[in-house]
Amino acid sequence: MPNHVSLPDSLESLRIMGLPPAAYYISDFITSDEEQMILDRIASAPKPRWKQLTHRRLQTWPSDLVNNKLIDAPLPAWLEEPIVSRLTSLRLGPASESSNIFGHSPHLKPNHVLINEYPAGVGIMPHKDGAAYHPVVCTVSLGASICLDIHKTKDDGTLDQAPAWRILQEPRSLLITTSDLYTGYLHGIADITEDVELSDDTVANWTLLRSGASFQEGRNVRQTRTSLTYRDVMNVSKLGSKLGMFRKK
Ligand SMILES: O=C(O)CCC(=O)C(=O)O
Ligand SMILES: [Fe+2]
């Protein structure tokens, strides 16, 4: 297992073809050591950090949004490095003047991380991420592989239950979804214990996988998979720091 990563000069070669614009997949974005370090930090977070839903749990860093607003606060060091500097080093095109993926976002880098833990058999309902975030979403997967389903809406506005595309996310990978794919479609994860019929024909990012061959008979038996979703919350309130100032007086 390599203990370093080599990132491409441009994301263009890692674009997931056949999807609406645009999504990119990097199979080896962090090392196994980095993956384990982050999983350890997540596991050692104080219990009140977890928000327990019916079937899964999550953490939000630096905090929950209130009315789509983030109270200004830094991310903890273990979520900032090495991931954020790697994310902001990724360029969309080959030219040196080409923008990095957060080059048009309000804070020029992600300021918020959602940590979702999915036990086998548990997913997330198809949804859109909504208006709070700049439309660039970076998802780092930890622990195990899982399929993300992309859904269309039907002409009457209701959800098309059958996914239009599937993206397979391996542990230590990065998936970037932007623009139309972010705003015009829904994404979700099925509540199943096994992803099946995985192949070049059914998985949009098959040729970009670390190891398509490891999914024997096209199957991925689900294990606990944790994701880090990095986004830039557009509206940031300085309220927290102002309160801090008042307290000092
Ligand atoms: O865990 C994932 O890959 C998706 C999470 C997600 O869609 C969300 O939290 O909005
Ligand atoms: Fe989402």
UniProtKB/TrEMBL annotation:
Chief location: nucleus
Subcellular location per the Swiss-Prot or TrEMBL entry: Nucleus
Keywords noted in UniProt: Dioxygenase, Iron, Metal-binding, Nucleus, Oxidoreductase
GO cellular component assignments: nucleus
Listed PROSITE patterns: FE2OG_OXY
Occurrences of domain Fe2OG dioxygenase (ranges): 109-234
Cited InterPro entries: AlkB-like (IPR027450), AlkB-like_sf (IPR037151), ALKBH6 (IPR032862), Oxoglu/Fe-dep_dioxygenase_dom (IPR005123)
GO molecular function: dioxygenase activity; metal ion binding
Similarity field: Belongs to the alkB family.
Stated name of the protein: Uu.00g057720.m01.CDS01
Organism: Anthostomella pinea
Source lineage: Eukaryota, Fungi, Dikarya, Ascomycota, Pezizomycotina
